[in-house]
Design a protein that fits this description.
This protein is an alpha+beta fold and 481 residues long. Helix content is 37%, strand content 19%. The strands form six sheets. A seven-stranded mixed β-sheet has the order 15-16-14-13-19-20-21, with helices on both faces. It has a six-stranded mixed β-sheet with strand order 3-2-1-5-12-11, with helices on both faces.
């Protein structure tokens, strides 16, 4: 990329669309954003208007291009994954998109667990179906009109380039025979789904821009990066087996790179194509995440997440015995265990506990969720890359290092998903020989958090208690809901 040129990278999240402009050295120049509405027709349902999401992308890109006023080398896109974005034969939406955190398919998943479908599918593709994956959503919708099921990234790519398809990381769960990296009719037969609703697997993820409303010249290269949880790993510099990342966002997505799929053992998490020969990602995207902190902000009448951190800093490690199981999603939990009825629990509360203790207990409860996911991953990382909005809290990053026992690191970027899209795009366009070289040149470490050895025994005991309390609560979750 020439020194005068810039790259525009779109990160289409669940609640915010961002367009980030990077210079040739990979430094952020401009960030534009638009909030996107998530609608809840019922408590269990989470939907978005597909046209509104596209309009938000157009608005962020146009603003970014206008603000930087420099030649644009490329447009790259990464987006929220899973869910079901249905389009008709003309590529138009059939209905609102059903999102990854939607819970309407919980009964489908329960039925598949009872009849062995989940386990049989796991032995083929290494991913444990949850209510937010498209196979379960399609069964719950029972759509009879002709349709194709896209992802958010696939929808945006079709609008940008006219190319309809699905990127392999997004197709991995639930559609691919993971050893072969190809669609499996054995899987669609298991799910009772017509394979004709699946879009083509994309073999080329670079196509010319055809959309006219973004303020960019027609023909500008558009690169569809893997979906956000994979692309974010690129943005932390993780490109080799054994490296781990955790996204501190709407989902706490803990990820480990592995050299080969393993479809044995207890079904858990997802196994995703990583876009690099000989590498896959074991991913544990939870339904517990920063939404729990949002809930606490509202509950305590705080201004933002920074006030939660400030409060938590006033309480000691262990929150004087106050503990939180942070399973607040209406869809329950999906990683590293699957239970659509999972719900939250506060224990150990006494008169002496106050707001600071509750803030500390929430951050620690979420850190125990991350440790739970790391323990389910193969091997043990030497360090854990942290990113997402939660990484702005140095206290929470330190708590995560203390509770997991793994050194945590963050990068200088505020938009790690977009940075990962840049790393992928410049590699795909041949400007770097591979992802590792691109990441080495463009990703810059920032802070490092070493586990506090003086608190290891406390956190070891608390994690064992966390697991025991959850096991006891699980016997009653279905009755409480």
């Amino acid at each position: 990329m020439a020194d005068s040129e810039v790259a525009v990278c779109v990160d289409a999240g669940t609640t915010v669309i961002k367009a980030v402009v990077f210079d040739a050295d990979g430094r952020e120049l401009v960030v534009t954003r638009r909030d996107t509405e998530v609608r809840h027709p019922t408590r269990e349902q989470c939907e978005q208007d597909m046209h509104e999401v596209w309009a938000a992308v157009v608005a962020t890109v146009r603003e970014a291009v206008e603000r930087v006023a420099r030649p644009v080398r490329l447009l790259a896109v990464t987006a929220q994954g899973d869910g079901a974005w249905l389009v008709d034969a003309d590529g138009e939406p059939l209905r609102p998109a059903v999102l990854w955190n939607d819970g309407r398919a919980a009964d489908v998943v329960r039925g598949w667990r009872a009849d062995g479908t989940l386990e049989r599918a796991y032995r083929i593709n290494g991913s444990l179906t949850n209510a937010g994956l498209p196979n379960a959503i399609l069964r719950s919708l029972g759509e009879t009109r002709p349709h194709t099921v896209l992802t958010c990234g696939g929808w945006l790519y079709s609008k940008l380039t006219g190319v309809r398809g699905i990127e392999k990381s997004e197709a991995s769960a639930p559609w691919l025979e993971i050893h072969a990296g190809a669609y499996s009719t054995e899987l669609t037969d298991l799910y009772g789904i017509d394979p004709d609703v699946l879009p083509p697997l994309l073999t080329d993820q670079v196509h010319p821009l055809t959309a006219t409303e973004l303020g960019l010249p027609a023909g500008t290269p558009v690169v569809l990066a893997p979906y956000d949880i994979v692309t974010t790993a690129f943005g932390t510099g993780a490109t080799a087996a054994g490296q781990a990342t955790c996204i501190l966002g709407t989902t706490l997505c803990t990820e480990m790179l592995v050299e080969a799929p393993d479809t044995t053992g207890e079904p858990s998490g997802l196994t995703l194509d990583f876009g690099v020969p000989g590498l896959l990602m074991r991913s544990f995207p939870t339904l517990a995440g920063t939404g729990v902190i949002d809930w606490l902000v509202d509950l305590l009448g705080l201004a933002d997440h920074a006030e939660v951190t400030q409060l938590a800093s006033q309480a000691p490690a262990g929150a004087d015995g106050l503990r939180v199981l942070p399973y607040l999603s209406p869809a329950g939990e999906r990683s590293p265990f699957l239970d659509p009825a999972a719900s939250g629990l506060v224990t150990g509360m006494l008169f002496g506990h106050g707001r600071a203790h509750l803030a500390r207990a929430v951050l620690e409860g979420l850190a125990h969720v991350i440790r739970d996911c790391l323990d389910a991953a193969p091997g043990r990382p030497v360090e854990l890359g942290l990113c997402g909005g939660g990484a702005a809290s140095s206290l929470w990053c330190q708590v995560i290092a203390d509770i997991t026992g793994v050194p945590a690191v963050s990068t200088e970027d505020t938009q790690v998903g977009a940075k990962g899209a840049l790393v992928y795009a410049l590699s795909a366009l041949g400007e770097y020989p591979d992802l590792t070289a691109a990441a080495a040149a463009l990703v810059r470490p920032s802070a490092r958090y070493e586990p506090n050895p003086g608190e290891r025994s406390l956190h070891e005991a608390r994690h064992a208690e966390f697991l025991e309390t959850r096991a006891l609560a699980a016997t009653r979750w279905a009755q409480w809901r």
